[in-house]
Amino acid sequence: MKVQLEDILLTVSKSEMIDDGNIDQARRLIIHSLIQGLQIKRVGIWLTDADKNSIECKLLIDTYHDTELESLKLHRSDFPNYFSYLDTERAIIAHNAHTHPATSEFSKVYLSPNKINSMLDIPIRHKGKMIGIICCEEIGNEKNWCQDEITFASAMSDLYGRALSAYQRNQYQKQLEEQNINLEKLVQKRTQALESSLDDLKSTQEKLIESEKMASLGNLVAGVAHEVNTPIGVAITGTTHSIESIKELEKLITDNQLSKQKFLSYLTNIKTANELIYNNLSRAVDLIQNFKQTAADQSGHTQYRFNLGEYLISTLSSLKPLLKRHNVTLTTQLDDGIEIYAPPGIFAQIITILIQNACAHAFLADQPDKSFQLTLKQSENKIILTAQDNGQGLAKEYQRRVFEPFYTTNRQGGGTGLGLSILYNLVVNQLKGEVQLQSELQHGCMFTLAFPNNLKD
Question: What CATH code would you report for 300-457?
Fold first, then answer.
């Protein structure tokens, strides 16, 4: 190849325009380099469509007429011979374009109007396929294309294929960046939506947990109200009996019919009635006071040092009506002298949940000997609280899920699945302890709560 052509080819191959992905600049560089190297006045780059039935001009520079064209398109149906030659995917070397069998059909409609006499069409290949041509055209004189010129034009065609690869890489990169941006936006949008949903779920869960706590207090209220009715009813009956005895005693005095024997008899009746009234009202007061303390503890978070065993006994007295209503026998084994610095309400809630859970789920309706045992002891720096029933037990596949929020085996019976979840949260998160469940079918359940005894008042 001539040195001049080699120099031009080397300059173009080293140009950043070939590999920077700007296909328009690469086209112009290649076309101007061909015009310079081949010393012609007209060069165009044409690309075929997918089915190769048409070919479209991407850029055509004519220095003779001083024009640039980008909108020409040729169809196979109009120039069948030319397209048949293109199908061979070989260069069309037309020294005389008017007579060459591949280009002669352009003579009247294209060659003569543009004063073109010679054509050199070099295939453009990309990834092994012919995708178009570089069309070199001589205006004025007829040009005999030499082998160096054909080789030079072919090398320029290869450089266009390289430039096209760089352009496609840029396009892929842009598409990837756009997809990443869109994906980031989508992830951000989904994350925001998920966070919003989680916030809503958390709010709903908090409301349901609060509702469950209030339901626990409601059960206590119902049980205590039922239990208080009995001593108050007896006290009212005793008061009525006492009033009637006093009225009869007054009548006997008025009628001068009161004997010492009758006086002592009525006095004994009134005394007995008053003792009955006092005992039952005292019982009602104790129930109400214990309930008030339990309700206050469950709704408050004040910490102080207290005797845990004594506090549990006080709490259990408010829960006896619930146990009585379900015919459950309560036994306790609470070590003396165990003191703790904590919010008492946590233990009120824990005991309430354990007993309510047992009454609602542990026993079959016709079970005759329902029992619930509560044990409290201290081991080194840990306090161990166990609650055991002799109910129907729980299958192993359910045991690992009982502490999950909203999981219940008694949904049809009104279970919310929050009780043991609240208990787990109180022990693990509030008391920094742990909860374990041991159970076998037909052998009841045993909950073991262990938490540190760190007094910090």
Answer: 3.30.565.10
